[in-house]
């Protein structure tokens, strides 16, 4: 059966709205934050061949498209409210759309999130979501709050058998690329692929860190690259702050620990697509950070400290300098 534009919206993406007076189908969505709240808004686009492989299951693609947007709200300490979906499709394939919608709706339901509008068109496969959250006025986590002496933290799964450990998404990509020397048993690859295709947004941790973390960002383009945004935004008079980072403190999965030290460092520090939270907090708030991790059922690990002197120093547990030759990911340079 041939699906038209409005047929596919009605069949797969129209749901009862809880926070929007209109829901899907009008010229604009209406979203009303609670009194004393500010709207937090973010957009992310996923393009086939750039952000995901053509072999990804539609359900996982739907999950990831929403997860990367939820991760931005998490980094801001915002509670999710609603989102819009702009979707370009090479053809209106009902089976593909059903799977995509299942992935979107399942994650949206977990976060009590409404789909309130968007657009559809014919074209190369492309998903662009805009997400809306709310945060108390003045309480948003920002990139610009780090201070010299702050501890640097990163989130991680609680169990070693859980997917999504730092660097595992990059390790899965290296398997797809056929990188020589990888030690990944066949039965373990599905676990790595889950990390790349189904990231877990740390929304509960972001909420728990309000009033505790001094700055925050999600790890999407690689830990070192994303950290530079915090250091530049937080520095005085346009001069970035610095960081001393312990490479051996970085949380990693058993599969990652089986790789060479060089590959581990590249995946952990420059891999990207992790969507863990990277954040800073004053040493006096060390216990409060631990408590936030416990309340949100999320692992947190202190991996370094912020310095007043610009520059990034990475060392191992023996104090030996770790080379970091990788450039930050850039869509027009990578």
TrEMBL record:
Enzyme Commission code(s) on record: 2.7.4.16
Binding-site residues, Mg(2+) 3: 27, 72, 218
Top EC category: transferase
Keyword tags: ATP-binding, Kinase, Magnesium, Metal-binding, Nucleotide-binding, Thiamine biosynthesis, Transferase
Binding-site positions, Mg(2+) 1: 43-44, 119
Gene3D superfamilies linked to this entry: PurM-like C-terminal domain, PurM-like, N-terminal domain
Binding site for ATP: 118-119, 143, 220
Annotated positions binding Mg(2+) 4: 27, 42, 72
GO-annotated biological processes: thiamine biosynthetic process; thiamine diphosphate biosynthetic process
Occurrences of domain PurM-like N-terminal (ranges): 25-135
One Pfam family from the record: AIRS
Reactions catalysed: thiamine phosphate + ATP = thiamine diphosphate + ADP
Highest taxon in the source lineage: Bacteria
Binding site for Mg(2+) 5: 221
Residues at which substrate binds: 51, 273, 329
Misc note: Reaction mechanism of ThiL seems to utilize a direct, inline transfer of the gamma-phosphate of ATP to TMP rather than a phosphorylated enzyme intermediate.
NCBIfam families in the cross-refs: thiL
Similarity remark: Belongs to the thiamine-monophosphate kinase family.
Protein name (database record): Thiamine-monophosphate kinase
Lineage: Bacteria, Pseudomonadati, Pseudomonadota, Betaproteobacteria, Burkholderiales
